[in-house]
Specification:
Number of strands: 8
Number of domains: 2
Number of helices: 5
Strand content: 15-25%
Strand order of the largest sheet: 1-2-6-3
Largest sheet: 4 strands, mixed
Distance between the termini: 49 Å
Shape: elongated
Helix content: 25-40%
Low-confidence stretches: 138-142, 145-158
Order of helices and strands: EHEEEEEHHHHEE
Structural class: alpha/beta
């Protein structure tokens, strides 16, 4: 058995490496099994996918070296993640680099992909409609978001 620890980091902090190491030690001691540490970073930190290292020293000697996977969403291209059948891919893609479209249009495309992944159910419609209203707070954002529009009932209309 392997324990996967996913830490969500919204704001870049200097003490993140030491904190990940403390969590790693605590989880290893508590569960007695290997731990795979992963940081999901929502700010601009990281290089997309990388593996930073945290080191501890005592009296000038390295006593511990710890590596963890870091996924910096803002530095990944969302194009490949928006196409999958799993709704988590397009949901996270909305936080990644948009590529060609402008930010509101990109978020709209991601929302449509989440809608399709959920199978166009009423629950998906409600969720997507709420998110779409938040994305399109201004008229300018609505006008730039492709040719589709969302009706007040949450269904998609052309």
């Amino acid at each position: 058995m392997i324990l996967v620890h996913v830490e969500l980091e919204g704001i870049r902090r200097r003490e993140f490496g030491p904190r990940m190491f403390q969590y790693y030690k605590a989880l290893t001691l508590r569960h007695g099994c290997p731990v795979l540490p992963i940081a999901l970073v929502f700010s601009g930190a990281g290089k997309g996918l990388d593996c930073p290292e945290y080191r501890e020293e005592t009296l000038g000697e390295q006593v511990a070296a710890f590596r963890y996977w870091r996924i910096g969403l803002r530095n990944l291209s969302g194009a490949e993640y928006v196409k999958g059948a799993n709704p988590l891919g397009p949901a996270l893609a909305a936080l990644m680099r948009p590529g060609n479209p402008q930010r509101p249009e990109w978020k709209y495309q991601c929302l449509r992909a989440v809608w399709r992944a959920f199978g166009s159910t009423r629950r998906a419609a409600d969720c997507c409609w709420t998110a779409w209203k938040r994305i399109c707070r201004s008229r300018a954002a609505r006008k730039s978001a492709s040719g589709d529009c969302w009706s007040e009932t949450g269904s998609c209309a052309r």
